[in-house]
Specification:
9-stranded antiparallel β-sheet; 8 helices
Length: 245
């Protein structure tokens, strides 16, 4: 259930979870499994149809992201080619999410598709409330949710989600009495590409940011099997995003 703190901000008395999820019949999972790009799912809008015999559909707002323009183009082409995706309308201007999206290149688009392919209603039916944009990469979805029931009921509810939707669900993290939204640190980390985050986390764990430094850039590059130039490029871009006020 939702309450408010001393500052009037909404707070959840339930349990916050990060779910790693796969489900069938998903155009985004299919497209990201065959390309190097990723997708952020922001919001869903009903699309009214005047033809009574026309199939039901919804329009969603999404962000495509990747390291290069070519990778984003490949991702968008894979989405257009999907038999589960309808009309794709790319937006010329972003809705103010440039700083929040991962990737060096980000492009927003609307997409029409069948709501029967969505897993969100099944999650909601079993008590999992969506609390942040869904991140889809490498054929998997990352969901930030709040569970509105008792913590002891989470396992049973996840089993029901899997049974009803054919999904595969793994709990990546769990915390009690947390805010429904992402923390500022989590939001900044979410702006990194997968490679940038891997390089940054490895550098941090290796003591690169300790004083005195416990690892050099040459050592980090050797451990990650990349050139020193490539490592520094990923590291500097990650630092720029994390330190950007």
């Amino acid at each position: 259930m939702a309450t408010t703190d001393a500052n009037g901000a909404e707070e959840w008395a339930g349990t916050r979870l990060t779910l790693d999820l796969w489900h069938p019949n998903c155009w985004a999972i299919d497209a990201t499994s065959s390309t190097d790009g990723g997708v952020l799912a922001h919001a869903i809008y009903n699309s009214p149809r005047t033809d009574a015999d026309a199939p039901n559909s919804v329009n969603g707002l999404f962000t495509a992201f990747a390291d290069t323009n070519e990778e984003v183009e490949e991702l968008l082409d894979a989405i257009r080619d999907s038999d589960r995706a309808g009309n794709l309308l790319e937006l010329k201007e972003r809705f103010g999410r440039a700083r929040d999206a991962p990737g060096n290149v980000v492009r927003e688009f609307f997409l029409e598709y069948d709501p029967a392919d969505m897993v969100c209603p099944t999650l909601l039916e079993h008590g999992f409330v969506h609390s942040a944009p869904v991140r889809i990469e490498d054929g998997r979805e990352e969901w930030q949710v709040c569970f509105v029931g008792e913590r002891t009921d989470i396992r049973e509810s996840l089993d029901a989600v899997q049974a009803d939707s054919g999904a595969e669900v793994t709990v990546e993290s769990m915390s009690s009495s947390g805010y429904a939204g992402r923390t500022p640190r989590e939001q900044r980390l979410d702006t990194l590409t997968t490679t940038q985050r891997e390089v940054y986390e490895h550098a941090r764990e290796a003591g690169y940011y300790e004083w005195p430094r416990e690892a050099s850039t040459r050592e980090l590059a050797e451990e990650l099997s990349v050139s020193k130039t490539t490592l520094l490029e990923h590291l500097r871009k990650a630092e720029s995003k994390l330190l950007d006020p």
